[in-house]
């Protein structure tokens, strides 16, 4: 997959592409056929950098992109869902400055609220795309999401034992796991990361899978469903080792 690279070497989120171009990315005929089947319900997709943070980057961008279509109550709900994280962080021995990363995240959410008041839907989405090209700003947001994921795993060990065999000894093992597998920016998100993050943020997440399994039907994995229909649903496209954003037909 070709990614846009800036002169300083940073890889960026790309503009939307028609989904009809997706099948051409695959040599495997099973994956190519599954990509073609997506055309019935989806119209576009957006490539993101193929690094360890592709899930977090795709997830937050898709969510932020949809904020312009909902009321300000959604941003307030999201920030409220994060309030218990500081107290949980204090009980753990995890590295990093929670307050600095939290402030960066909250600041950007408030900035989104301000921009969607001033701009049209199209204008807001163009503004967000330009903001996504600021790798330094987005890096702090992604680090915060990783830290929130780690806090949730470490404080809800019993919930996630079935996902991670290394959690047999409880919280000490969970902290060790997160130090090695969740917090480092080069580490890909596993199923437990998706579940932990969406449990905290309470943001619905669906993952459309393209793989080499012989099953003809599309595999759409619902990670989290919200009882509140006003919360934007994030829909991601997964092919082995990578997440992009996919858009349903209007």
Automatic annotation (TrEMBL):
Coiled coil: none annotated. GO terms for molecular function: cysteine-type deubiquitinase activity; ubiquitin binding. It comes from the Eukaryota. PANTHER family: UBIQUITIN THIOLESTERASE PROTEIN OTUB, UBIQUITINYL HYDROLASE 1. One of its GO terms (cellular component) is nucleus. Keywords: Hydrolase, Protease, Thiol protease, Ubl conjugation pathway. It catalyses: Thiol-dependent hydrolysis of ester, thioester, amide, peptide and isopeptide bonds formed by the C-terminal Gly of ubiquitin (a 76-residue protein attached to proteins as an intracellular targeting signal). Its EC number is 3.4.19.12. The keyword Magnesium does not apply. The keyword Lyase does not apply. It comes from Aegilops tauschii subsp. strangulata. Transmembrane segments: none annotated. GO terms for biological process: protein K48-linked deubiquitination; proteolysis. Residues 43-249 form the OTU domain. This is ubiquitinyl hydrolase 1.
């Amino acid at each position: 997959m070709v990614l846009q690279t800036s002169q300083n070497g940073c890889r960026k989120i790309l503009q939307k592409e028609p989904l009809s171009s997706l099948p051409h990315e695959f040599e495997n005929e099973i994956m190519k056929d599954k990509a073609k089947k997506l055309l019935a319900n989806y119209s576009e997709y957006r490539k993101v950098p193929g690094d360890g943070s592709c899930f977090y980057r795709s997830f937050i961008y898709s969510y932020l992109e949809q904020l312009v279509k909902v009321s300000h109550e959604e941003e307030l709900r999201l920030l409220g869902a994060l309030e218990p994280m500081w107290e949980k962080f204090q009980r753990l021995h995890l590295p990093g400055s929670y307050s600095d990363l939290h402030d960066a995240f909250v600041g950007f959410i408030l900035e989104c609220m301000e921009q969607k008041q001033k701009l049209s839907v199209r204008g807001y989405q163009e503004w967000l795309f330009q903001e996504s090209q600021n790798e330094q700003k987005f890096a702090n947001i992604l680090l915060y999401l990783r830290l929130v994921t780690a806090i949730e795993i470490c404080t809800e060990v019993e919930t996630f034992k079935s996902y991670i065999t290394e959690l047999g000894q409880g919280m000490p093992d969970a902290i060790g796991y997160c130090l090695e597998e969740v917090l480092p920016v080069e580490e890909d998100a596993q199923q437990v990361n998706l579940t932990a993050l969406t449990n905290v943020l309470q943001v619905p997440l669906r993952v459309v899978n393209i793989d080499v399994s012989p099953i003809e039907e599309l595999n759409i994995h619902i990670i989290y469903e919200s009882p509140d229909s006003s919360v934007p649903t994030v829909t991601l496209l997964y092919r082995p080792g990578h997440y992009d954003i996919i858009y349903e037909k209007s």
